[in-house]
Amino acid sequence: IFVSIGNAVSPYVSQNLGANKPRRIKKGYQAALVLDVCFAVLAFIIIETLHTQISSLFLGKDGTAFAYQVSGDYMRWL
User: Fold this and answer.
1) For the chain, which has fewer Cβ within 10 Å, the N-terminal or C-terminal residue?
2) Residue 62 carries which DSSP code?
3) Residue 12 pLDDT more than 80?
4) Dist CA 7 CA 14 (whole Å)
């Protein structure tokens, strides 16, 4: 998502730079930054609160407590 937003900002900046509209560039950049921060906060909240459930999607019922602990720690550090 973050890369896609960055890829969308590039032509937006180019078009507005060519049209000599620097104010629109600043507004667009700020909007993209707000979107990135919102998605990052949302991802953080989801991973921080649901790391065990996310791990169970991949480990299934065969996962040990240690495997759940390691995968949860990994997601938190990622």
Assistant:
1) C
2) G
3) yes
4) 11
